[in-house]
Amino acid sequence: MTSTVAEFEAVAQRNKLTSVAVIGMGYVGLPTALGLHAGGVEVIGIDLSQNRLDAIRACEVDLIESDLRRLEKAVHQEDFQLTADPARLAEADAVLVCVPTGLDEYLMPDLGPLKNACAALIASARAGQTLILTSTSYVGTAQQLLVKPLSAKGFKVGRDIFVASSPERIDPGNVTHTQADTPRVLGGVTPACTAMAQRVINVLTPAVHCVSSPETAEMTKLYENTFRAVNIALANEFAEISDGFSIDPIEVIEAAASKPYGFMAFHPGPGVGGHCIPCDPHYLLWQLRATQSNAPLVTQAMHAIAERPKQVVDRVLNVLSRDGRGMADTRILVVGVTYKPGVQDVRSSSALDIIDLLAAKGAKVGYHDPLVPNVRVTGGSLDNVADPHGVDWDLALIHTVQPGHGYAWLAQCPVVIDATYRFDTALFTS
Predict the structure, then answer these.
(1) pTM (predicted TM-score)
(2) Known catalytic membership, residue 193
(3) What is the per-residue pLDDT for 427?
(4) Regarding the domain with residue range 223-302, which homologous superfamily does it belong to in the CATH classification?
């Protein structure tokens, strides 16, 4: 007799969830672990970096305020454990894989951390566990890195052990759309896998959108961030077009957004960064190349995004040229180097590319960002200009405005270029 969804859900209810291991305690894994712990589950947080674990124990990590308060309590409790030992995975009822999935220098997927995490998971897997991939990756990741090796070890997936994909939807620094308030997509290998995984994800959020397979869940995440990438590229292009007509692109966007249907506002900027938009679409393009398929719109959008820092530097050069100056020996201060406001994260930040491009053209470049004491750039590192004076610089390029910090000193800078298009001029005098 065929089992019903209700029967699978009943099985999941009978299998009480008491402990969850989280592999990877970074920008996704740590908030996930804190959310599980707040939901009453014992957590084993696993990360191979002892420095990262020490920083977490010291509460010296970049989190939204509510998660930081959670962490300050959790690190003193016995049911929130941190370790670098992957053998502890066997102790958990469920395991979430939250390791980074980045790109190499050739924009090819760097699957090393994900493969290593899954290999460690397979080595420690035991009957009855629920294994959930939350890292964004290519379509078929769960099948290739979990289902096949588990089956080779003699596990019957959907009966002995349960596998699902539920890509993360954590936006670092965002206090409006928290993890608990954001629906999660979930696809299990079998209906039993979906039911067993849902009991885990429901600890993080009550809103779970179940789909038919892990592959559907994996494709959904790629579509979400590719959608954003394409529209950001379009917004940047319209900003350039508007500038050619001496039109304010933000005024255009706000006017278009007054339409109550058929339009979603995306804003131009100096580039994209972080762990999603610059990376995720390349996982799709990489997989399509392997099948000799193509996605010309996505390909062009990602090329445009990659070129955006160069366009910003060209804009700087054009402004200097109108003043009869060149780039050589011009003192330029980049204002803000994180990839978005309110976080300390500089991963894939376009500010780093912009700094390199400006320096390559002979500019004397510094940066000011109250959240970042130093950054690695081509040729070495730069230290934050903690107390900038506008008169010390020929030009200030606004890349990221950090909330809660004053920018009145910009009023003394001879030339200010706003690459965000949304800098509040009232901040000049605040």
Answers:
(1) 0.91
(2) no
(3) 63
(4) N-(1-d-carboxylethyl)-l-norvaline Dehydrogenase; domain 2 (1.10.1040.10)
